[in-house]
Design brief:
Two copies of one chain form a homodimer. Chain A is α+β, with helices and mostly antiparallel strands. Chain A folds into two domains: 1-68, Orthogonal Bundle (Arc Repressor Mutant, subunit A); 70-128, Ferric-uptake regulator, C-terminal dimerisarion domain (Dna Ligase, domain 1, 2-Layer Sandwich), CATH 3.30.1490.190. Helix content of chain A is 43%, strand content 20%. Chain A has a three-stranded antiparallel sheet. In chain A, strands 5-4-6 form a three-stranded mixed sheet, with no helix packed on it. In chain A, a hairpin with a 5-residue loop joins β4 (72-76) and β5. The model of chain A has no long low-confidence stretch (mean pLDDT 94). At the A-B interface, β6 of A face β6 of B. β6 (104-111) of chain A pairs antiparallel with β6 of chain B. Chain A binds a DNA duplex through residues 2, 4-5, 20-22, 34-39, 41-43, 45, 60, 62-63.
Chain lengths: 128, 128
Amino acid sequence: MTKYAKKIREIIEASRDHKTAEQIFEALKKTYPTVVRATVYNNLNKLWDAGMIRKISSEGLPDRYDRLERHDHLMCRKCGRLIDVDLGDLTQQLQQRLRVPILSYDLKLMYICEACRKKEQEEGREES
Amino acid sequence: MTKYAKKIREIIEASRDHKTAEQIFEALKKTYPTVVRATVYNNLNKLWDAGMIRKISSEGLPDRYDRLERHDHLMCRKCGRLIDVDLGDLTQQLQQRLRVPILSYDLKLMYICEACRKKEQEEGREES
DNA sequence: ATCTAAATTTAGAATTATTCTAAAAAGAGG
DNA sequence: CCTCTTTTTAGAATAATTCTAAATTTAGAT
């Protein structure tokens, strides 16, 4: 594992805010100011292929990266805001009903966040 | 609802193969040969905002669209191949453990498909 | 019908995240 | 200190999607 891969992994493991490649690039520059974007993408892909980090893809927004530690996500349907939640490990329950062995699962719960709910209400008022 | 939105919705509801915007564009051209891509994107976004279709975002691959009917997905971690599975409605079980009301949830089970498993084995042999 | 306003479509440019390419640099092992 | 492999770099290229502004269609009111 190269110094870049290692540091990128550390950044992701330490974070709770679902960083984008760009944000990881910015964070990495604090330690290695001359690093380029391609290095970040190369390593993110390598780490993901190796199953060492999570990747969260969402509608419209750039991919975000996350630590492995078991948890699920609450995602705002409007703005993409992500919040960590833990709904327990469903692996057993799910695997029982499938023939193929599953490596992992992603559970994304859609909701409308506070900010977007307010915005909706205001728009509703205006239109009336 | 315009004729385009209506037809796009029909295409998606009738499909079981998780079409991309491009594939929907191609399918739509059979009925409306002069339609342009932007119209497809406009309508897909509108239908999705209205909660009338599902959107499946995955790592690297373009977004795919899906009918609403309750089901989950088995996704190959290597190539993105999608298979429909039904693991039952977990809404109750999940909602119980959350304070905010959830609109829906996406459950994506990661596995390695047959084709990718074979490819892995062959690569393993070569390297040895 | 006819007018007006709002919504939709069109064409094509623009954006943006990400990947690719080829050359340079860094590492690893003998 | 060579040789081979891997990684990084710089910058061009790609590809999906969004944006813009003008043209067209639609819907409601007159």
